[in-house]
Amino acid sequence: MRVTRVRLFALRQELRHSFETSSHRKSGIEHLLVEVTDEDGRCGWGEIATPSDPYFGAETTATAWDIATRYLVPALLGAEGDEPAELEATWARVRGHEFARAGFSGAVWDLFSRRRGIALATALGGTRDEVVAGVSLGIEPSIDELLSQVELQRAAGYPRVKLKIAPGWDVEPVRAVRDAHPDLDLHVDANGAYPDDDDSAAVFAQLDTQGLTMIEQPFAPRELVAHAALQARIGTAVCLDESVVALGDLRTMIRLRAGRILNIKVSRMGGLTVAKAAHDLAVEAGIPVWCGGMHEFGVGRAANVAISALPGFLLPSDVSGSDKYYVDDIVAPAVTAVEGRVQVPHGPGIGHDVLVERIERGASRTYDSADVAVRDAAFTRG
């Protein structure tokens, strides 16, 4: 396959319910969508699910747009390859910028599987027909409002609930949810908000008594030694997210015993190829994995469903139905969950039709390689 055209779209969607983490609260999401076209006119779609602000990581929608237009499009345009990894190799010189690279990786994988008439899940090696989904709940103004949100999601059939925590919003809300739902598959996510000190140790010791499935990313991304020390002290599994960007990070996690569970975010790791490799390495090491989300629109959500069909994804993934977050989605049919389960599409590629006209109408910014003199054409030619 040879890539003959690349288009980018910046699109914002409002959230049904605002969402707060340890860093900030948001009421809408802006992501970038990538469309790649081959010599036969077939299209593949990917999603650059960067946050707008540099709180989860260093990337933002602004930096991703710049990297995409200055480097990734010139690298990919005109490139040929039989496998997705061959096309991904064209931008191998780009260091970091995993979210931007992941959007292009998703588009290439979608195109690859559509050309072969197979589902993306099949192309990746998936073995499941359905994926168990969990939901992630943000920090709420009060414990009563948090309990209402938990009730709402349990009524929708979701078997796992993840609670965002931060210093000052941790033990009490978690205890309240556990008391109200003693049988709930419950875990917490700190997004690296806690310092490695005695006060934090006391918090995690109390959380360790709440029957949690995991405590996700308690410390900052590079604090792998602190994570290892915490895991040695508590019985609850520590799960790493932001700490594991590359396969080398995962090997360090395994060697240090810095956690017993891995959150594989396709965006954080730079795309489907490396995410699949992380899955394989984790399975070999006996570490269960699950797929984390970044409030993806339908394109990115469908890719997450596809990779969650791999056999090592043993825990519920953040692939809840689109209607939990957005009034309308950009794919048809929308990603839906029934009793907390999402069907893995069997159609070619991501298995959903991309609503191109809706994206074109709603985009605040667009880029089309057919209309632009692509710079740095020598980037991939050496």
Shape descriptor: globular
Strand order of the largest sheet: 5-6-7-8-9-10-11
Topology as H/E string? Answer: EEEHHHHEEHEHEHEHEHEHHEHEEEHE
**CATH architecture verdict of the largest domain:** Alpha-Beta Barrel
How many β-strand stretches? 15
* Mean pLDDT level: 93
Architecture blueprint of SSEs:
Blueprint: E1 3-20, E2 25-38, E3 43-48, H1 61-76, H2 84-88, H3 98-116, H4 120-124, E4 130-132, E5 134-137, H5 143-155, E6 160-164, H6 171-180, E7 185-189, H7 198-207, E8 215-216, H8 224-233, E9 238-240, H9 247-256, E10 261-264, H10 266-269, H11 272-285, E11 289-291, H12 298-308, E12 331-332, E13 341-343, E14 353-354, H13 356-362, E15 365-368
Parallel strand pairs: 5-6, 6-7, 7-8, 8-9, 9-10, 10-11
Antiparallel strand pairs: 1-2, 1-15, 2-3, 4-13, 12-14
Account of the 3D structure:
It is a single chain. Strands 5-6-7-8-9-10-11 form a seven-stranded parallel β-sheet. Strands 3-2-1-15 form a four-stranded antiparallel β-sheet, with helices on both faces. 52% of the residues are buried. The longest helix has 19 residues, at 98-116. 35% of the residues lie in helices and 20% in strands. By secondary structure, it is of the alpha/beta class. The protein has 13 helices and 15 strands. The radius of gyration is 20 Å and the shape is globular. The chain has two domains: 3-117 and 356-379, Enolase-like, N-terminal domain (Enolase-like, domain 1, 2-Layer Sandwich); 122-354, Enolase-like C-terminal domain (TIM Barrel, Alpha-Beta Barrel), CATH 3.20.20. Helix 7 (198-207) links the parallel strand 7 (185-189) and strand 8.
